[in-house]
Structure prediction request, 378 residues.
Amino acid sequence: MGRFHRHDEGNDHDHGHAHNHDHDHAHDHDHGDHSGYVTGSERVVVLERIFEENDQTAAANRRDFDGAELTAVNLMSSPGAGKTTVLRETLRQLQGRLRVGIIEGDIETSIDADRLDGFGAAVSLINTANGFGGECHLDAPMVRSALPRLPLTDLDLLIVENVGNLVCPAEFDVGAHARAMVYSVTEGEEKPLKYPVMFRSVDLVLVNKVDLIPHLDYDLSLFYANLDAVNPGVAVIETSARTGLGIDKWCGWLCDLRRSFHQFPD
Amino acid sequence: MHELSICGSVMGIVRKHAAGREVRTVNIRIGAMRQIVPDTLVYCWSLVTESSELEDTELRVERIPAKIRCTGCGREQVLDAPATACASCPGCTVDLVEGDEFLITSLELAEA
Prediction:
């Protein structure tokens, strides 16, 4: 997909047809053109949100989750932040407490889905290269397509493990009740400032791989200052999926979330 | 790289409102707090509309800066950095009042 990236602002695009993108001026229309050769144009007001269709499907997903008395979390991160290892430890700790389903989003392979096998969770894999154009995120229709492969009414918690990417997944509501992200300290302190949309969009940040801090030139307080600048007051849990540190708090957060959305005796 | 799939959604909305009429321009508004790159969007538009009835339709992007309102002092300020904090009252929560937009505002259709 990299060949489509064009971040060099101000370059000229070859669209095969000539037009100008600098339109800071008020628009003139062709009504005053009396050449007799150019037909006029008519402006039709649309004011339609481009994510409307996605958001309607997200709402349908949420209705299905609520109907099944199921709490859903959209879990996002950059590639390699440790989502799958966090999830593996999460499933280990939640065994016997909550019945968990996972929607595993990856562009290719079942490697991550396979890593989650054997912990009692129902796993539904979406490979976005398979019929979804190799998308770098999950959207609501993709998640909807995975639901028939899950026993929704037999589950308490559904975790949607999004495609590893700090840009695109933040834009798409998939119908989850909450959004969480795994950030790892090896990514550096400045990530919230570089990806503010992602860091703003979440209800919880897991600060993962904290066991590595003694080996890194890393300033945790600077990361927290940067996070506070884009999402003041967001909940944070420090974790190490490798040592298990903090996973109990994260599991507690998930159980509290479930109680806040669906009132059931534990 | 979600601009390509977004252009597919834009085409669907445009076709619904154009109802078969020739579309000269699609006007889109993008807030600064959206991670959508206008140049990439325009480039992807040329890809997805190729060989369709929208091939010559221009995608015109209007950018909206991010604006916050401080819940403490009520002051509105345009952001020049992603930090969503009031310059006068650090620690106060702020509401994003502009900059979250992502919509098709209008179409310019050839007169029938």
